[in-house]
């Protein structure tokens, strides 16, 4: 049904994206991301991400800080991973690339009411602050937690998490 | 975490999901100075649907940290208590009075049990007051002294003395009658997801107590043990200052200490701990 169509559409977009002219379109704005059953088919940048950079973003406290809630055995150097969310080993076996992109972009579109932060969203917050300063931020100044490039890098990293 | 559930449903419609908290914590008992028995586990108060048992944050700390709280000689928070004992007997302000002039010597025990019922409805003011607000009213209106900052060292020390006087007595704040409206407001704040990380108190302290957020072992976020001496800060921390830190960590803007919002939240959180012993000054990492 719908899922099959989504997958087909994803394949299509990826094919044209990767084999295309090399001219990268400007990144999709946070408000313009199209979710289908929680998944996001097309790369937010129109380009594939870098899994090595993605692993750093994943582990770095000041950037993705995914480690505060997730463990993954392929990054044994990361100390004290949290266990709020599931271990991410085998994530790429469980989810398609489009689904993983959807989860990293806005996990609440996949898991209703998820505790996982929405990493590519700029509206709808209650009492948002400037980082961890406790100072209020003007709505128009809010930038997403991760840039489109960083989202794609993290997605590329997650795609390396295969066990099968 | 049971992630088989998501695996099975992956790709389906958005999944309503409420993780079961696993109560991973110490099996331990707290008897302070081999004398004062502290209730660290109690049946949840009737208003709390979320879980059956409530736990002191002490059970979620490491053995080393737990040990520091077993004996007042080891507990650095006791320095604050001692300093407040001096303040208790010190004359201050235009009325020429000390706390003890009206409330008696500490040994008289007039303050025993007071901490356990705060925040509390104040009939004259027509609002719920924290212990700190009550103390300040004695200073400004009865002593003719200057108000202490609600988060100042003097105030936190005095607050620690009030906890010390009630140590071992179960928390029992009233949530009905005139306090109910404030309590409801506090409850709403407890479940509101603040900041750019969109996290509510409940996300961490209700859904995930016992779990680890990076190196932090999440407790139920109870207030029975305040003020608590934080080894990291080498200082006594007040309840509302802890709230501030928790909201700041959501990339959010906390309410002010002493604001109606934080007083309401303090009442609500205290009521979630009704049944646990007053434990302050506690020791936390």
Widest sheet, order of strands of chain B: 11-10-12
**Tally of helical runs of chain B:** 10
Total strand segments of chain B: 12
Compute the average pLDDT of chain B: 92
Terminal Cα span of chain A: 26 Å
Radius of gyration of chain A, in angstroms, nearest whole number:
16 Å
User: Main β-sheet of chain B, in a few words?
Assistant: 3 strands, mixed
Strand percent estimate of chain B: 5-15%
What ranges of chain B have pLDDT less than 50 throughout 5 or more consecutive residues? 1-22
Q: What percent strand of chain A?
A: under 5%
Output the number of helix runs of chain A: 5
Helix content of chain B: 25-40%
What can you see in these coordinates?
The complex is a heterodimer of chains A (164) and B (285). Chain A is mainly alpha-helical and 164 residues long. Chain A is built from 5 helices and 1 strand, in the order H-H-H-H-E-H. Chain B is 33% helix and 12% strand. Chain B has 285 residues and is an alpha+beta fold. In chain B, helix 3 (78-88) crosses helix 6 (153-166) and helix 7 (180-190) crosses helix 10. Chain B is built from 10 helices and 12 strands. In chain B, strand 6 and strand 7 form a beta hairpin. Chain B has helices spanning 4-9, 63-68, 78-88, 99-103, 131-143, 153-166, 180-190, 201-205, 239-248, 260-272, and strands spanning 15-16, 30-32, 36-38, 41-43, 53-55, 120-122, 127-129, 212-213, 216-217, 228-230, 235-237, 282-284. The interface between A and B is large, with 44 and 38 residues.
């Amino acid at each position: 049904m719908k899922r099959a169509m989504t997958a087909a559409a994803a394949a299509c977009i990826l094919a044209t994206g990767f084999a295309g002219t090399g001219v990268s379109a400007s990144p999709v704005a946070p408000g313009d991301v199209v979710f289908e059953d929680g998944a996001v088919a097309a790369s937010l940048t129109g380009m594939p991400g870098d899994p090595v950079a993605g692993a750093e973003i994943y582990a770095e406290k000041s950037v993705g800080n995914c480690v505060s809630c997730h463990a993954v055995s392929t990054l044994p150097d990361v100390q004290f991973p949290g266990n709020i969310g599931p271990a991410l080993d085998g994530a790429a076996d469980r989810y398609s690339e489009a689904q993983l992109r959807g989860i990293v972009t806005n996990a609440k579109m996949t898991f209703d009411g998820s505790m996982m932060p929405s990493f590519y969203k700029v509206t709808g917050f209650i009492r948002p602050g400037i980082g961890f300063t406790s100072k209020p931020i003007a709505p128009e100044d809010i930038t997403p937690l991760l840039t489109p490039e960083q989202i794609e890098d993290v997605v590329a990293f997650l795609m390396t998490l295969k066990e099968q | 975490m049971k992630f088989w559930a998501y695996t099975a449903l992956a790709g389906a419609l958005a999944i309503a999901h409420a993780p079961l908290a696993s109560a991973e914590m110490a099996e331990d008992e707290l008897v302070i100075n081999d004398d004062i028995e502290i209730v660290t586990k109690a049946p949840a108060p009737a208003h709390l649907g979320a879980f059956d048992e409530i736990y002191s944050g002490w059970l979620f700390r490491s053995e080393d940290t737990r040990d520091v709280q077993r004996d007042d000689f080891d507990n650095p928070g006791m320095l604050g208590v001692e300093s407040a004992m001096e303040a208790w007997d010190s004359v201050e302000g235009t009325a020429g009075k000390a706390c003890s002039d009206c409330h008696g010597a500490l040994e008289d025990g007039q303050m025993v049990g007071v901490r356990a019922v705060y925040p509390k409805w104040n009939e004259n003011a027509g609002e719920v007051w924290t212990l700190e607000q009550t103390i300040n009213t004695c200073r400004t209106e009865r002593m003719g002294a200057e108000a202490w900052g609600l988060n100042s060292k003097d105030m936190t020390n005095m607050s620690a003395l009030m906890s010390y006087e009630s140590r071992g007595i179960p928390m029992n704040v009233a949530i009905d009658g005139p306090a109910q409206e404030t309590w409801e407001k506090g409850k709403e704040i407890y479940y509101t997801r603040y900041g750019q990380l969109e996290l509510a108190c409940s996300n961490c302290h209700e859904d995930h107590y016992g779990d680890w957020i990076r190196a932090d072992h999440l407790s139920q976020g109870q207030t029975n043990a305040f003020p608590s001496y934080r080894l990291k800060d080498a200082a006594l921390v007040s309840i509302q200052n802890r709230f501030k830190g928790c909201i700041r960590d959501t990339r959010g803007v906390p309410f002010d200490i002493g604001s109606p919002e934080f007083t309401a939240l303090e009442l609500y959180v205290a009521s979630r701990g009704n049944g646990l012993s007053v434990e302050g000054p506690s020791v936390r990492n």
